[in-house]
Amino acid sequence: MTSSPDIFYCCLRTGENCSRIPSSSHLAPVWRRSTHRKKSSIVVCSGKRNDKALEYKKLGDSDLVISEITLGTMTFGEQNTEKDAHEQLSYAFERGINALDTAEMYPIPVKKETQGRTDRYIASWLKSQPRDKVILATKVCGYSERNYIRDNASVIRVDAANIKESVEKSLERLGTDYIDLLQIHWPDRYIPLFGGYLYEYTRWRESVPFSDQLRAFQELIDQGKVRYIGVSNETSYGVMEFLHAAKLEGLPKIVSIQNNYSLLVRCKYELDLIEVCHPNNCNIGLLAYSPLAGGALSGKYLDSNSEAAKIGRFNLFPGYMERYNKSVSKEATGEYLKVAKKHGLSLVELALGFVRDRPFVTSSIIGATTIEQLAQDVDAILKTERPLPPEVEKDIENVFKRYKDPAID
Predict the structure, then answer these.
(1) For strand 27-31 and strand 7-11, is the pairing parallel, antiparallel, or unpaired?
(2) Closest CA to 256 of 275, 283, 237
(3) Contacts of 407 (CB under 8 A, 6+ apart)
(4) Angstrom distance (rounded) from CA 265 to CA 286
(5) CA distances (Å), origin 288, targets 68, 206, 266
(6) 188 against 310, higher pLDDT
(7) Confidence band (pLDDT; 50, 70, 90) for 316?
(8) Band (195; pLDDT cuts 50, 70, 90)
(9) Does 105 score more than 80 pLDDT?
(10) Around Cβ 322, how many Cβ atoms within 10 Å?
């Protein structure tokens, strides 16, 4: 059995160690980062000790202590104006969120005329913020034939030239001189992506060697332009190859994996990535994206004639994330809604509470198109009973046994 981590209090106003300040002060209990690899690191910050507050966890082997909610920004510049974006960013950070997630290709859906607009909206907000208080995560494109993203490339690859150009342009758009976490948005090699499930044997292709990718990141880290690296939409094979190359050649280790995870998408992570990324094995933090399955787990698409469904992204952008709007996914969503109602919860509370409580999730990436949606999501994380009661978990598993990953294309 490992010993419990040390605990002390820090002042929210100054950040100093305030262990000896009386308990009536505005303090936040903080678990010190452990030097023992197998010991978890959790920080809990609050204006008062008894307040419900966000938890903060160390991201993999990095020194980044990240809030259990990361603000997703892919709607900035498409569904959200610059003013909307600034309001969401300010609200999120006022609620204790300290990390935001962007990508060079955002906003979504991807279009040549809007590519990079998300970053520019973030940059104009970031100017008024203390840079060291914001964990800025972005992503470099994987293999893509959207060649307009690069100056002189017919096909985008995850090689040194592409990575360097991506980072230089991202830094310029974001108005900063460093990125806290740079992730490969999807692999350079072929894998089934964005709703694809089964690997198509005949689609294997030559890809950039893992060590070459890591050497390119090493150069950027040495230059102080990137602090840590991670992957996204990755498989166990990819994670292990990156780790093997890093160990063999003394190259930087990935600290995070940003993969899809929700009540409707569980199997790909829980089958084997959960073992690979376990703190006692490779210690890679999961940043779970689409915990509400693109909005499907809000329940608004169950009635296709509702006003909320009509103005939702599934209808605004035909074909977008349609895997969540298919009959089997809808059936599963309806069953989870029954579970939520049975236990006096909203579907959002059930869905976000479930992801929040998984011990292998470091942070849930939550995006919204309105402040009201964002507030509802943050409240669901903070105010829903922690952890969800055993009887709720049992009912969730009963639905899961009948609908395992119903969003498979």
Answers:
(1) antiparallel
(2) 283
(3) 195, 264, 265, 293, 323, 324, 326, 329
(4) 14
(5) 10, 29, 11
(6) 188
(7) confident
(8) confident
(9) yes
(10) 15
Of residues 298 and 324, more confidence is placed in: 298
Long-range contacts of 372-377 (CB under 8 A, 24+ apart): 374/88, 374/91, 374/92, 375/91, 376/348, 377/69, 377/292, 377/348, 377/352
Binned at pLDDT 50, 70 and 90, residue 37 comes out as: very low
Give me 228's structure tokens: 């840590």
Q: How far is CA 327 from CA 137, 141, 210, 400, 403, in A?
A: 35, 32, 39, 16, 12
226 forms bridges with which residues in the sheet? 179
pLDDT per position as a tens digit, 63-92: 999 999 999 999 999 999 999 999 999 999
Tokens 């010991």 belong to residue = 39
Q: Is the dihedral of CA 272, 275, 281, 283 positive or negative?
A: positive
Q: So which residues are the catalytic ones?
A: 106
pLDDT the model gives residue 306? 79
Amino acid at 31: W
Tokens representing 87 are 């309001």
279-314 per-position pLDDT tens digit: 999 999 999 999 999 999 999 988 877 777 777 777
Q: Are 69 and 57 in contact (CB under 8 A)?
A: no
Q: What is the pTM of this model?
A: 0.88
